[in-house]
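A brief tutorial aside. Many learners find it easier to grasp structure tokens once they have seen a single protein encoded end to end. The record that follows does exactly this for Cyclase family protein. Read the sequence first, then the structure, and try to relate runs of similar tokens to stretches of the chain.
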Amino acid sequence: MDKRVVFDFDIEFTNGGGIQGQDFRLDIEKHEISDKDLADYIVADLRLLMVGKVTILNKYYIEERHKRKSNSENTTKELLIDLSHTIENGLITYKGLPAPIICDYLSRENSKQFYEEGTQFQIGKIEMVTNTGTYLDCPFHRYEHGKDLSEIELAAFTDLDAIVIRIPYKNTLNITAQHLNGYEVRNRAVLIHTGWDAYWNTETYYENHPSLTRDAAEYLRDCEVKLVGIDSHNIDDTRGKSRPVHTILLGYEILIVEHLCNLSLLPDDGFSFSAIPPKFKGVGTFPVRAMAKIYKK
């Protein structure tokens, strides 16, 4: 037998007034539902606006056949996938660059002197280079007169139509234009899934990693992609002093995101990608909380 929830509700409107309901019955898919989820469902189902406080009262469950299709079957849900590594004290992202120092500026214990008894706060202090964790590169990183983070529009790194191109590192470490042929990449964020993130925070991660070649960067530039990301130590081959991929992409204002992870959890396409940094002036790269948004029925 199906599960249903029975409850009363009281809804207040921010512009005055309200509505109440008694002995309301709702189909549910699981054995129980939280008051918050129940309130959100009512507001959405009744298409209410200017809603303030919602109170759920006298809630209990019964076994009874569902009366209509579940709301979850009729609503498109967003699934968010975190594509960022965690930044912690002492983390080495790039050999030769200092690890971040993350500590208290004001500890909870020391804060007690400023507040009433039982009230404590912590204020953190972070010292780090901007190339730490999963980060975004913009033109200023490579070019003195290129746009810095404060000059990049939100549309350049937010909710971009995206695609994953899977090129396992076990097959090749040199990703060429030929590997990128046959994909719909124009005006999209192109995420290169190599699987190298499996070595994150190990000695293996820093050496002989997958990277793009010059002709791959030229191909992506000519296709006018919006952003290129990779789950590797660097989008360029770091064994030499040349950085053609950064030079080509950033010179064309195509943003780069390095040190991604969890690309294996994404579909090949049908999702959006975001990698949003703080709005710093005079900074060309900075850690981001990179994420994918997948729409599911």
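Self-check: The mean pLDDT is 94. If you spotted this yourself, you are ready for the next section.
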